[in-house]
Amino acid sequence: MPADRHAARRQKLIRAIRRESADALLVTNFTNVSYLTGFSGDDSHLLIGPSATVLISDSRYTTQLQQECPGLDLHIRGPGKSMTDAAAKVVARAKLATVGFESGSLTYDQWHALAAQTKSADLKPLSGLVEKLRLVKDSHEIAEIRKAVYQAEHGFQAFRACLLGDMTERRAAHELEHSMRRFGAVGASFAPIVAVGSQSALPHARPTDREIGESSFVLVDWGATAVQGYKSDLTRIIVTGKISPKLARIYRVVLNAQRIGIDSIRPGLRCCDVDQAARKSIANAGYGKNFGHGLGHGIGLDIHEGPRLGPSSTETLKPGMVVTVEPGVYLPGWGGIRIEDDVLVTRDGCEVLTSTPKELQEAVLE
Prior knowledge:
Helix 7 packs across helix 8 (169-182). With 366 residues, this protein is of the alpha+beta class. The protein has helices spanning 3-19, 30-37, 62-68, 83-94, 108-117, 129-134, 139-161, 169-182, 245-263, 271-284, and strands at residues 24-27, 45-48, 53-58, 73-77, 98-102, 122-126, 187-188, 193-196, 217-222, 224-225, 234-239, 296-298, 305-309, 322-325, 328-331, 335-338, 341-346, 349-352. The strands form 6 sheets. The chain has a 6-stranded mixed sheet with strand order 4-3-2-1-5-6. A 3-stranded antiparallel sheet has the order 8-9-11, with helices on one face.
């Protein structure tokens, strides 16, 4: 990614820091540091402000930092020194009066140690400044998410072709991640969910030794992480046996709700209104109590980030946002149906980035 893209992000953040009446912000969330600098490692902080921008890390990454973050001032902490010690030294050297910190990232112990070593600076809790910048993706980020979608979908196709009745959920999850890596993913964007039959009633089921052939359907929730860290997130049902009337009925309810949700996405609409459109459809079908989570969430460098499509989310959709749309109906003892796609908000509506078939007949494993 061009260095000027990261520089532009830092300038936007500096303007936000000024609006908060702070001299600088200590960024301690590793993902936020990566977003602002291009550094792909972890164990890093960034002090950023109008008068000082310093990337703080340790000697393991010295060469990598020089390669990935040319032109940035670096502070490499010495042996036996913590990241908090190093950050305190950088803050003291910059002689700043008011320093914001990411209150959602810095632990109490870290804050206490930082405050003890920077008594001349007022530490001001600030939350979400970088995350607000990350809400809207630029063209490079969208291209990277498209890569993650490609890797996830092609990996799923290969995985689906080798699925066997005596394969366990755990083995199937491993096979799926391996398949995505074969198409260029650096890994799964989260631990894949492979949930057979009644296990699928758990929205975040963990793969077990239950075999695929023990039920007539299996829920698969998966995603890929592309080389630069951007992620995808999909869910599909695979029918491994006979389509029962109950399965057909509930699947139809969920697919209809998802279509309504996707069709309602456009700039200017509140996230809660998108959620409500799909949620109302499920409630009208008699399954309102069986849909207990939000309709979707943003994806990017994190698998769950803003904006949130939920009943209480008043965030307004903007072009460049990428969200999942994933309604579900969960019946304990029977199972759950969830269908999920990744959707880009465009200037005049939306674009569904994922294309894995989702009609019920297409879900049948031949």
